[in-house]
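Hi there,

I know you've been waiting on this one. I reran it after we fixed the sequence typo, so this is the corrected version. Both the input and the resulting structure follow.
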Amino acid sequence: MSAPGSGVTVISRALPWLLTLGGAVGLAASAALLVERIRVLADPGHVPSCSINPVLSCGTVMATPQAEAFGVPNPIVGVACFAVVTTVGAALLAGAEPRRWFWLGLQAGVVFGVVFVHWLIFQSLYRIGALCPYCMVVWAVTVPLFWYVTLHNTRSGHLPVPTGVRPAAEVLARNHTVVLTVWALAIVGAVGQAFWTYWATVL
């Protein structure tokens, strides 16, 4: 990969904005879902605003064990994590220059986020059988956050890349939007396949 300090890439210049805006969107979605969860706890008859039909139904998702993967409602985890991401982005926009350990900590955070999100995607599609619209917003911001933080860390030298995989890593970095597009289409395709029977009845 490129040596540390070998020019400021477009990715690195855009990263503070991505962290700030992506973190804010994820925070808003998590907070909205948390509010709906509180309303359901206060009134079991409450129908969440994100329960639209049998498939798009966060009320169904909320009632499952997967909605409390770490012993607390998942939206609480989302609010905490996205608040950190938004703060990091704002700090970078203000001119902060974090040390390597900070970037590695952020890398660990986005790795946790993207793994957790894909576990939730699998659970939603193949175990729960319902989708949470607010959760899908979180999916949509978590993947780019992981991808571009990882690209920044590898290109800046914070995250070492083994010599044998550097050529492949360079190709992926040069085609970063293609990778992200294919990734998104794969998730959309999985959603379409999992709920095709329902979609076919409404199209």
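Quick highlight: The CA atoms of residues 100 and 158 lie 6 Å apart.

Best,
R. S.
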